[in-house]
Design brief:
By secondary structure, the protein is mainly alpha-helical. The protein has helices at 6-15, 24-32, 46-66, 70-77, 84-101, 120-127, 131-140, and strands spanning 109-110, 116-117, 153-154. The protein has a three-stranded antiparallel sheet with strand order 2-1-3, with no helix packed on it. Helix 2 (24-32) crosses helix 3 (46-66). The longest helix is centred in the middle third of the chain and has 21 residues, at 46-66. The chain is elongated, with a radius of gyration of 20 Å. The two termini are 38 Å apart.
Length: 156
């Protein structure tokens, strides 16, 4: 069983994982509140359990309010204002859906943050459209800034 320290708590919270006897939601809430590890030892005090549950409930409600449509849910899944334990499962489902619907489409490179980048040509082919149509649609949806020509790391 892992020992709860400020560093391990931060790591668990940022990765959307639980630690020791804390669930992912409890780990994130405790990290968000900057709780000292001594307050997180088993068994958790009732008031600590209630506090962590309330922080989780607040985060879940904010995520639900942000994810009112499929497009909004995708946006919320990549919005760092929401906790990783809520965002990462949605991101995993999106990756699974991409792999299932577009099995031949794979990232061409990665940006400086490690995010997957796709070739505009490959996207157009997978979607059965033209590059110009993708660019026009991105402009129309306010996503033109997501089309980058900046530095990337090719995937070998």
């Amino acid at each position: 069983m892992a020992t709860i320290t400020p560093e391990t708590l931060a790591q668990a919270a940022e990765q959307g994982d639980g630690i020791a006897h804390l669930s992912p939601a409890q780990a994130w809430a405790a990290w968000k509140l900057d709780m000292p590890p001594a307050r997180l030892q088993r068994p958790l005090a009732r008031h600590t359990l209630l506090l962590l549950a309330n922080i989780d409930r607040k985060a879940r409600r904010a995520f639900q309010r942000a994810a009112t449509t499929p497009d909004a849910m995708i946006g919320a899944a990549f919005d760092d204002r929401h906790p990783p334990y809520l965002r990462l499962p949605v991101q995993a489902e999106l990756r699974h859906g991409m792999a299932e619907c577009f099995p031949g489409l794979s990232p061409a490179s990665r940006d400086a943050d490690g995010n997957a980048l796709y070739s505009l040509t490959d996207l157009a082919t997978a979607l059965g459209t033209t590059e110009a149509e993708i660019v026009d649609h991105a402009k129309h949806e306010g996503m033109a800034d997501m089309i980058t020509t900046g530095p990337v790391r090719p995937i070998h």
